[in-house]
Amino acid sequence: MTDTDSTKLFEARHLRDVLGNFPTSVVAVTTSDPNDVPVGMVVGSFTSVSLDPPMVSFLVDRSSSTLPKILAAGRFCANALASDQEWLCRQMAKKGADRFTGVQWQQSAHANPILDGVVAWVDCTIDKTVELGDHYLVVGLIGDLNVASVKRPLLFFRGGYGDYTSTAQLLLDSHLRY
Ligand SMILES: Cc1cc2nc3c(=O)[nH]c(=O)nc-3n(C[C@H](O)[C@H](O)[C@H](O)COP(=O)(O)O)c2cc1C
Description:
3-stranded antiparallel beta sheet, globular, Flavin reductase family protein, 5 helices, Split_barrel_FMN-bd, Flavin_Rdtase-like_dom, alpha+beta, 12 strands, Pnp Oxidase, Chain A, EC 1.-.-.-, 7-stranded antiparallel beta sheet, oxidoreductase activity, binds flavin mononucleotide
C-alpha cells in the first residue's frame, strides 16, 4: 500500500481518535541552546529502545520548531512528568509560551535541564535520527538516568490527562476502609 492509498483510507481525525485510545506517558524533552537558554517540548511518544547499548527514543513532528534546537545541541533529557504537573505539560506544549516560567531545574551531566518534581529522568546524547513519514524518530544513547520522586506519573488518554492508580493500591484502600 502506498502513502497515498493510506491517506485515502484513514481520515486524520479517525487516526487521532483511535490512536488516542492507547494511553501514553507525558514526557518533557529538554535541552539548551548555545547561550545556555533552556529549551523544551512535550512528547507522548517516548519509549525505551535497547538495554545494551542503553537507548531510548521519541518522535517529533517534522514541522516542530523545537526539533532543530534539540538536533543542534545533540543531546536531550527525557523528564517523566508527575500527575501534579499538568500545568507544566500545558505550558511546555504551548507555542510561543515561555515554557520555563516558574520551572525550577538542575543541569544534568550532559548540560540538559532536569526538571524539579518529575518522576524520573533519562539524560542522553543523540545517537541517530530517522525520518519516518511526517515525523523524525530521535534515538538517544543514555548517559545517566534516575528516579527522582515517588510521585505517580501524568498520563494522556483519549485527549485528556489522568493519574495512574495501581490495582494493588485500590485493593489496599478498599481493605483499609473496613
Ligand atoms: C500530551 C501531549 C503529547 C504530545 N506528543 C508529541 C509528540 O510525541 N511529538 C511531537 O512532535 N509533538 C507532540 N506534542 C506537541 C508538542 O508538545 C508541542 O505542541 C509542539 O512541540 C509545539 O511545536 P514546536 O515544537 O514548534 O514548539 C504533544 C503534546 C501534548 C500535549
